[in-house]
Each structure stands twice: as C-alpha cells, then as structure tokens.
User: Fold this.
Amino acid sequence: MARILAVTNQKGGVGKTTTCVNLAASLAATKRRVLMVDMDPQGNATMGSGVDKHSIEQSIYDVLVGEAKANQVRIRQTPGGFDLIPSNADLTAAEVELFELDNKERRLKAELEELSAEYDYILIDCPPSLNMLTVNALAAADGVVIPMQCEYYALEGISSLLNTIEQIRGALNPDLRIEGILRTMYDPRTSLANEVSNQLTEHFDSLVYQTVIPRNIRLAEAPSHGLPALMYDKQSRGAIAYLALAGELNRKQQQQTSLAS
Ligand code: ATP
Ligand code: MG
Assistant:
C-alpha cells in the first residue's frame, strides 16, 4: 500500500509545488514507485513535470466528478520517473460541483485507494487555500508535508494549518498525521531565518525535517524546462537537497514499518 502524503500550506508561494515535483523525482530515483496528483487548478505541478496542461484531454477534475477513473487519466513515466494525474483550470469548477455530489470530501480518497497497491508513495500537490480540494487531499492522506519559509508570519500560518488538520482528524480522517515540516528557500545568512528556524525546532522538535532546502536558482529555472531539478541539473544544491529529503522520508518510513512489524 502506498503512503499518501499531501503537500500543503494555505500560504501561497512557499514551495509546495517545487517540493512535490522534486520530492517525487527524488523518491523515484531511489527506486520507489511514485504517483503525483496535482490538486491545484493552477496546474504548476503538471507543467513542472513536463506535461502541457493545455493539451490534456482529461484531468483530476474528471476523476473527482466521476467522469473518469484515475487510471484512465494517469500519465505514465513523466521525465522525472514518476506517474502523474494532471490538472488544469478545469479543476476550478470542481470546487463548486463537489458540493452537489455524494461523499464530496472523500472522492479523491476513494479513487486513490484503487491505485494504492501500485505505488510506494502518492504525493498530492495542494492549492494555496483550505477549500474542498484541499479537504479531499487531507481526507485521502496518511500524512501531511508542510513546506514553509522561515519568515516572520510563518509560525502563525502553521498554527492555523494545524487547527485545520485537527478538524479534519475529528471529522474525516482520524489517522492523519503530520509527516514533517520542511524549511524551504532557506538562507542561513539572515538572522530572521535562523530565529524562526530555532523557534520551529523548539515547538515541533522531530517533526521538523533535518533536511533544509536552500534558495537555489536551479529549482526556480527547472519548471520552465518541464523538468525536476534532478533531471535539469543534478549537481545543483537544490537537486541534492531534495535527494536528501527523499532519503530522510525513506528512513522514517522504514523505521515505522519495522516498529509496526
Ligand atoms: P502556490 O501557493 O502558488 O501553489 P507554491 O507553494 O506551490 O505556490 P512554488 O510554486 O513551489 O510554491 O514556489 C514559488 C516560487 O518560488 C516559484 O517561482 C518557485 O520556482 C520558487 N522556488 C520555490 N522553491 C525555491 C527554492 N528553494 N529556491 C529558489 N526558488 C524557489
Ligand atoms: Mg503550487
């Protein structure tokens, strides 16, 4: 069964999509079978994986409203070595249409359950809001990966996200856990970044990934080539950092499996 991770933070531009695409490619590089699901109508994760969001016939929208099955929409073996369920602006309509449908919060979960046996990881890229799409992602997930920039308001943002996760646990998904908090676009030369980072580790301790993602121009350039950084410039600090993160996730996963058995 796949471990399903939602990459989420209601704050925009914190590195969710960059994390999703690069983590997917890095996990695939460690021989894990990975499916990425783009749940953002912006379709950035789709484009960043080398799939043109304008030319796809069906997307996650069709899956959510019941017009297609996930395995019909899935694109096999993107250049990053992972499979993708793509998205585009069509998905905007789903936010409204879902309210008319049965089981509106659990539609993604039901679809992913059918594919779960084929993968080690399923990563879900969430939009920068707490709408019905994000609720579907959180209802489907085993864990939440929270990318954050170490800025002044970041901790406030995290506490409102934690409240949401708590609500989802109560209402929809009692086993949902915080998989980890990831420091992104990190610049160790700024004292504010270090201060916020220290507060973060004080509050959240081992929930904060040891791996830190540096600010790195290659990570910003790679999407315009439709490639994860690992395929665009594998020597770059960004690519190396996401490989380290994949290693950290795999080790955590192995520890959990050995504790459970
Ligand atoms: P949204 O909320 O709009 O979905 P997001 O949280 O998915 O945004 P990204 O799109 O991943 O954030 O990143 C925002 C911008 O910052 C993008 O232009 C991206 O290329 C750039 N970026 C992300 N991470 C890094 C990094 N570590 N170094 C340099 N640039 C980065
Ligand atoms: Mg995004």
In short: The pocket of magnesium ion (ligand 2) is lined by residues 16-17, 40, 44 (CB under 6 Å). The chain has a mean pLDDT of 96.
